[in-house]
Amino acid sequence: MTAGRQRLGQWGENKAAAWYRERGWEVLDRNWRGTGGELDLVVGRAGTVVFCEVKTRSSTAYGHPAEAVDRRKQQRIRSLAVQWLRQHHEPAANLRFDVACVLKGRLEVLEGAF
């Protein structure tokens, strides 16, 4: 991955983390690495833990950012979420999987995307 793409991705993750914080969510983890991958953003509030995959694109040349979160990617994120929950002993009444799409600087969070 090029340095420019890394910066763009980090910028998108920062934008998504700020969006959650503005709505009263606590950022529990960022870029957590487990067996088989990484969780971009883990946030929590009032017994709910959200695992958010952040996809940042400068154009739609390779499709909408949400399209990159296919079934295989969703399964990987679910597996990583189980690992994260086991490691952190997080008592969560509810789990949610969101996708944060940043396209041309505009953020759209798809809550409960999968």
Structure description:
There is one protein chain. The protein has helices spanning about 5-20, 70-90, and strands spanning about 25-35, 35-45, 50-55, 95-105, 105-110. Helix content is about 35%, strand content about 40%. A 5-stranded mixed β-sheet has the order 1-2-3-4-5, with helices on both faces. The two termini are about 25 Å apart. The chain contains 2 helices and 5 strands, in the order αβββαββ.
Keywords:
114 residues; five-stranded mixed sheet; 33% helix; alpha+beta; 5 strands
Helix content: 25-40%
SSE series = HEEEHEE
Taking pLDDT < 50 over at least 5 consecutive residues as the criterion, the unreliable ranges are: none
Fraction in beta strands: 35-45%
* Global structural class: alpha+beta
Q: What is the 3D form? A: globular
Write the layout of secondary structure elements.
Elements: H1 3-22, E1 26-34, E2 37-45, E3 48-57, H2 71-88, E4 94-103, E5 106-110
Parallel strand pairs: 3-4
Antiparallel strand pairs: 1-2, 2-3, 4-5
Tell me briefly what this model is.
The protein has 114 residues and is of the alpha+beta class. The chain is 33% helix and 38% strand. It has a five-stranded mixed β-sheet with strand order 1-2-3-4-5, sandwiched between helices.
